[in-house]
Fold these 3 entries.
Entry 1:
Amino acid sequence: MSEKVLVVEDEISLQETLAYNLRKQGYEVDTAGEGQTALDKARAWNPDLIILDIMLPGIDGFEICRILRQEMSTPVLMLTARDDEIDRVVGLEVGADDYLTKPFSMRELMARVKAMLRRVRLIREEMDTTAVTAEVIIFGNLNVNLTRREALIDEKPIALKPKEYELLVFLAQHRGQVLTREFILERVWGWDFIGDSRTVDVHVRWLREKIEADPANPMRIITVRGAGYRFEG
């Protein structure tokens, strides 16, 4: 079955070019040119990947990403017309998985699409092959259930995005070790992820907000200056 890609872009010529090239690669493609249509199609079609422009009529890309991230874990590749760090950081904070600055080459976009969809396939394969017997990692009041793919604080489930959960598991499995941002990025996001280490910092901040008693003074995920992070449990 072909993987499904939703292209959200209001510039018709670019929308058609993206759709044409994605279909040539064998993907099933649908398109939207404004915010509400994008939300409706994402909910009804459940794509494997969303390519999302920031500047859209009606609801902008940031808000669309924020809304969808509360409802689904579909990876989002965000497009921005400016090489502006603020856009990239905000995009990551609202839940985008990667970003690409216009103008971009079609080869680079396809490389990112392939990398993101490959990661989706790997996650699904891992979920399909999970052992029936529950495996739980316990750190005080924090429990990570590898079979159910969930984390609990004081026996109450905490809402983790898929990448936050994967990051938590990876850190927990390397308790006490100093891990560089680059190593974390390679192992959690995949060696073919096209992005930078700030992605790790953003997700660590989100994770701290959910598992630390005082996120400003973390006791579980420790920053090691000049090196990376160390998980203390």
Entry 2:
Amino acid sequence: MMVQYPELQATEDGSLTLYTPCFGEHYHSTHGAVQESRHIYTGLALEGRLATWHQDKGKALRLFEVGLGTGLNALLTALIANKEQIPIHYTSIEKYPLPKEIFHHLSYEDVIGKGSDELLRRLHESPWGEDVCITPFFTLHKVLGDLTDYTFPQALDVVYYDAFSPEAQPELWEERLFLSLYDAMNCQATLATYCAKGVVRRALQHAGFSVERLPGPPGKREVLRAVKVRG
């Protein structure tokens, strides 16, 4: 059987995304991959949490991502960690890792800046299943596995929920996963997702989160941000 690799495609802000024939979806918004990631994940999730996060000496902010994908969210987060000198421990689970034939062609330097492509390759080439110090302020732990039978790491401060849509992967949007995730998160921890569907919002609320609908990036009317307001 011929393997159907994801296909590289340009988005409107000049950055690349991938289209997967397997699920019939893009990894990012075609209106702009980088601007989507900056708006939803490093913006609403990470920067939203940093506004209330008080760093203890020697303690890293613990971040969990559903879907490593192209590595764009991890890349942008690593750049913020370095710039702000905030230690971040970043765990990401991925069931369908990209082969070298794909990630070696990913490039974001024209949009993000010089040096970002080298950092992105280091993220992809780092070994699975162990903590890897990518930079002095960014430690990556990649998990090769299925979210539906995964035990979440504890004491999470930020969650990027970036799975394919509920239509493509309904099993990744079930309330039981949000319940488990809620239990794994610190008080005031923040989760953001591009998916603003009512069924997802209600599942997050039923799990205990305080959920708000916020304006999305270009091409997306609304996104969701959820906060664990009680310990």
Entry 3:
Amino acid sequence: MSVQHTPAPARSDVRRPAGVGRSAPARPFFKRGMLLTVGAVAWGVDSLIFGTDPDGQLEEALSSITGGMFQIGLMGLLTVLYATKALGEGGLARFFLRLEGVILVFAMGSTLADGIGVSDFDKLGWVLLDICWPLSMLGMFFIGIRVAIAGRWTGKDRYWPLIAESWGPICVPTFAIFGSTVAGVVSFVHLCVGYGVLGQLVARKQR
């Protein structure tokens, strides 16, 4: 008498445990970091060529395109800050990042309106929309301070956001004192060294 051992058929209804066979990407924020770098450098080059106060329809359109690329990069940065709880784990930190995101969306609307030439600064609504652009940059500066204080990001990651996000406090007074051309040079250097490098740090960030 022979005994045959027939293997039990594989069950198709048994799910593999979550995470089995799949590994988390080594650099989960790579695309967002690269987008921030590209946007910062593009807007910086535009500032270097045309200054920080573009004149004429073509200059305004190019400034809006490059500025919009930079703003999209900033939005990506906000999502990384939120995902990594860079400002802390409390509800206030999450609220502030959401608020900054809302202000940035309105700032992007202002950039688009300027680019297509529909802004009308004789009307209060357009003025308020335009104010969202500097407000968003001021908000990023406070975010940089908070990232440094919270200390959840370590090494260069901890302090470089503050360096990058000091663009407003540095470039705006430069424009007021020295004018558009000088401010454009300062803006170019600051954007490349600040946000350009920050984008690379974010791209290399593993968690």
